[in-house]
Amino acid sequence: MTSTLSLALHRRTLEQRQRSASDDALVNRARQGQYDAFEGLYRTHAPRVYALCLRLTADVTEANELTQDVFIRAWRALPEFRGEADVATWLHRIAVNAMLQGRRGDQRRTARIALAGDHDDDARALAEGSTAARDVGTAIDLERAIASLPPGVRRAFVLHDVEGYTHEEIADMTGLAAGTLRAQLHRARQLLIRALSP
Amino acid sequence: MTDHLTFDELCDVADAPTGAPAASAAREHLATCADCEEELAAITALSAETALLPREIAPPAEVWTAIRAELGVRAATQPRWWESSSVRLLAAGLVIAVSSSALTMLATRARREPASVATAVAPAPAPRALPAHLASAERGYARDVEELRRALNERRDSLSASTVATVEQSLRVADSAIAEAREALERDPANGVLAEIFASNYERKIDLLRRATELAPRT
């Protein structure tokens, strides 16, 4: 039987290898204050950071703000970045830390695509179970169901099952006990299976 | 073992590496209990579906604009880095496009027609029903696309053939992702995540067009 963690870990490792070489050059130039190199890092890594932020926050406006926050923090922290971790991992850490610090701006901008009411729909779907078709609908339903999870269990599921972090890594990032994380992860899976059952 | 396995125990089995001894007792039970086997299959299926989720979603263009403003970079500053690395960047854009639209591409991959150059032209929004706010957003995107398309066509003779081919290929992928997200949205117009993917696909196409246009000097 394939480990539930192995697919995510394998995918993460492959992606990291492909990107690390060009990242080093960009980081070196960005450290010297070259904004265009930093834009190169943004273009490379923003889609992954944004996907993480969107799933962690389940809110488009918050995800936009969090992604901005991540890259502004990264720019300011570049002088201290020594390359012990690859850039993607470093940015993910910044994203998780920023999210955990509860960045909740009062001045939310209006998203280009309004999502008002979506959370109610998601919560209803989670409670009642989705009836949508499988294939493409499965992935869409899964995204909706993840977005509807309570924040703590959503964070555990996104970091462990989607992003492939180990319990130890998540515990290190969040400061939560391994037992708590395990309980949150299992609760998330239970809720998702229930939500996705026909 | 006669009692059913708990959900926590089943998750531990699912998470354990193949052949891990810690789960051996549970596996013995699973061999004889259809209920637990079914529940474990549900956990495994969830894991497989999760592994297929797109890892990349392009952020809206205004995210970078806001970052640049916060860092104090004036808009007039041109990113010379990609003037000298145009093909590599555009190819990277293609990779991002493929991965971030995986959600909708997965379902329609089998019935997709072979791409042609003609598909690179921005498709006019089909007269099918989208919620008003999405239809309005799409009209705005279509105007941006048309304007950038016109500018690119005026300058395309100054681009190399390989750059044009890369741009066209990237645009075809973006168009395909837009069409598939739109089709899915028509079936599920209240889906916020899908709306975000739909918008991201348009933003990405506009970004590709903008970057391609900036690669080409005015003639």
Q: List how many beta strands of chain A DSSP finds.
A: 0
Strand content of chain B: under 5%
The tally of strands of chain B reads: 0
- Count of helical stretches of chain A: 9
Mean pLDDT of chain B: 71
Structure in words:
The complex is a heterodimer of chains A (198) and B (219). In chain A, helix 5 (118-128) crosses helix 6 and helix 7 crosses helix 9. Chain A is mostly helical and 198 residues long. The relative contact order of chain A is 0.11. Chain A has 9 helices and no strands. Chain A starts with 5 loop residues before the first helix and ends with a helix. The longest helix of chain A is centred in the first third of the chain and has 26 residues, at 6-31. Chain A is 73% helix and 0% strand. With 219 residues, chain B is mainly α. The radius of gyration of chain B is 23 Å and the shape is elongated. Chain B starts with 6 loop residues before the first helix and ends with a helix.
Concise structural overview:
The complex is a heterodimer of chains A (198) and B (219). Chain A has 198 residues and is an all-alpha fold. Helices cover 73% and strands 0% of the residues of chain A.
Q: What's the structural blueprint in terms of helices and strands?
A:
The complex is a heterodimer of chains A (198) and B (219).
Chain A (H helix, E strand, L loop, with lengths): L5 H26 L3 H23 L2 H18 L9 H14 L17 H11 L7 H13 L2 H12 L4 H8 L3 H19 L2
Helix pairs in contact in A: 1-2, 2-3, 2-4, 2-7, 3-4, 5-6, 5-9, 6-9, 7-9
Chain B lengths: L6 H9 L8 H7 L3 H18 L9 H11 L14 H15 L1 H7 L23 H24 L5 H27 L4 H24 L4
Helix pairs in contact in B: 1-3, 5-8, 5-9, 6-8, 7-9, 8-9
